[in-house]
Each structure stands twice: as structure tokens, then as C-alpha cells.
Amino acid sequence: MAQQDSSNTNNNSLTVPTEGGKYVTVFNDPVNFNAKHPLNNSWTLWFDNPGKKSNANNWEQSLKELITFDTVEDFWGVYNNIMKTCDLGISSNYHLFKQGIKPMWEDPANKRGGKWSIQLPRNKTMNEIDNIWLYTMLACIGEAFEQESEVCGAVVSVRKAFFRIALWTRSSDNYETAMSIGRILKRAANLNGTLEFQSHHESSNTGKAWTV
Ligand code: MGP
To answer: What is the CA(105)–ligand 1 centre distance, in A?
Structure first.
């Protein structure tokens, strides 16, 4: 096993694993260096930037499935190699959903569900949105929620005047469950302001607004 180099007293530099005074690299220890840490679920990243002509009937055509990953290392590999949210064009969305769930209301996992969401003014959030989206994704893939099976996925939306963060849930009729998820999301992603919960299905949306 690689040992940490305790002789390195410079706090500003990285500690390099050594063995017998020599650096240990992937060539010395391929098994440990190549170990990946599995996630509880596989997750798929989607992107879309629907044009002005898009409507509910043709919206799905603009959805692009980018990649599916199921380890911590592959998550970072994806995250470090895609455009940051702050650089995306207006009307873009990233959707991170459990594998097998399409990021649309019509998917069986979403059709009775809802979403927690918050709109963050663009000018005040430009420098923070990448971290907010990152912490939202980490809460999802790290299974930070008590009712983890309720979580379907998360979306970040880039709009002219704001960014929107949303977390989609499987159901929309249990107050305690929804509130628990909303509170954890707010804390995990360090969201200042009020999050609102809405059912996807407008007809069952009786005007009740759960907030956290
Ligand atoms: P949006 O992007 O969720 O709302 O949906 P926003 O940001 O308030 O609106 P925007 O015009 O500023 O982008 C925008 C539109 O996309 C909806 O009115 C639908 O036409 C379409 N759309 C969005 N979603 C998430 C879905 C979906 O799940 N299914 C279908 N069929 N259409 C959708």
C-alpha cells in the first residue's frame, strides 16, 4: 500500500504517496490506483437548448442524452470535461437523472411527481451557480436525502434573467416527504431564498404551494 510522505512539511504543497522514499504511481500499484468507488445508482446527464419554436409536443426532440456514469471517479471525469453552467447559452438546461428516467413529465417515474425549485437572479448568481449546481448533483449522487428513492433527478436552467435549480421527485402528495427533501436540498446546495414545490401535473395542482 502507498504510504503518505510525512517528511513533507510544506503545507502549501500536495502530499505525494511514497514507498521506501520513491514516488508511488499507477505503474507501481495499478490495482489501488485504478479502484473506482461505485455510486448507489447510475446517473445520466442530459442537455437541451430548445429553440423558440419548441412546444410541449416537440420538446423531447431537443433533449440530448450525454453520458451515464456509476462511479465517483467517472462523475468527476464528466464534470471536469463539460461546459460550466455559467458558460451555457440562454435557454439551456442540464438534467441529471437516475438512469432509466427521462427528464420529462411524461416519464412513468415523474408523471405523479413534482419539483422543488428556486430562481436565482442571473447577475447576483453568476459566480456561484457552478458550485450550486455541483452541490445539487453531489447531494443526488451521494444519496444525501432521507427518502432517497423519491428523488428522480435535478435540473439547472439558464434563462435570460435567472438560473433555476430544480429537484424532481417521484410523488407530489406527501407533505412530510417533500419537506424533508426540500430542506436537505436547500442546505446541501447552500441556497439562499425560498424554494417552492409544485406538482408537474397542473390539474392536480390545487394552488397549494409548499415552501422551504
Ligand atoms: P421549462 O423550460 O421547464 O420552463 O419549459 P421555463 O423555463 O419557465 O420556460 P422557458 O420558455 O423560459 O424555457 C418550457 C417549455 O418546454 C414548456 O412550456 C414545454 O413546452 C416544454 N417542456 C419542458 N419540460 C420540462 C417538458 C416536459 O417534461 N415534457 C414536455 N412535453 N414538454 C416540456
So the answer is: 10
